[in-house]
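Hi U.,

Before I forget, here's the chain from the pilot set. I'm dumping it here mostly so it's searchable later in email.
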Amino acid sequence: MKAILILEDGTVFEGESIGAPGTAIGEVVFATGMTGYQEMLTDPSFAGQLLTLTYPLIGNYGTNSDDIESDRIQVEGFIVRELCEEPSNWRMSASLRDYLRQNGVVSIQGVDTRALTRRLRVHGVMMGAISTELAVPELKAELEKAPNYGAVNFVERVSTKNAYDWTGDNWSKFLDLPELKCRIALVDMGVKRNIARCLAKEGCECVVLPWNATADEIMSVRPDGVVFSPGPGDPRQLKEVVETMRQIIGKKPILGICLGHQIFGMAMGADIIKLKFGHRGANQPVKNLLNGKVSITAQNHGYAVNPENLSDDVEVTHVNLNDGTVEGLRHKYLPVFSIQYHPEASAGPLDEGYLFRKFVAGVMDTM
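Structure:
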């Protein structure tokens, strides 16, 4: 079945449908990485976006019921150069083509993803649409009517509606979990399951709370520490979360990851900037300013903290070596720190997993 991709600047790519029939509209972004497509598809931080993978052949190891980061595929649409039609892996339960169709994801192959990625790098990410049913003029009209990515609160869409205790998933049976040390409130703005797994591996009992839980509601679960998760969209849509964090700072140790990092920055006076094409993938270099170490990190964000108006009580701890943007913050006097990248990876390198141990150690020091 034929499919077309159109960008808001009028650029059109033709290809073949590899997913469900229909039309999908979202912000077109690209991610670098040779593997991890199932984790990326189910990462809530990709909600509202048409995900392009830069590696030319995708799907060679199929899909399974374990390598997922949420309860469903989160991307609006999926764009690849070539889909592998003969996947092979002992863990595979379905091909990527079947997985996309079963989950109703509008997807396209045959796109020149190098040309698409270059256009996004030169001109910046932009809205786009994929369709198997509309001609170019009709699809262009639908795209023009769609709200801009930054105008939508996608966190509200992906967050849990009710609080729950994390009790594990398919991967938990492979983890050698220690005795429980502390109780953590995990504020779900688009949480990946591997964040809960990483905390569990450090001896944390996790209570997952909705994105709009108030400070009183968070404190009512009697946490020893609080984690604000990653998530999709523009953090400036989340002023109530900023106020919630502001009320908890000084009462409990806090870790902010990705969107949670941006929320911490805003709570401490910083502004937010939209990046031209964002950081998405498994090979982003970050320098730790505290010890000079450079790590290769997994990232997925389109916004960054502008440090100009940060409180004097906060210091920048990490920077991105590609563009100098802020990748880490810490409070100078309180047990609060944040990271823009994903220490839980999945997909990506696990070099920064020690940050969960650092957070838990800080929690234990305050108990």
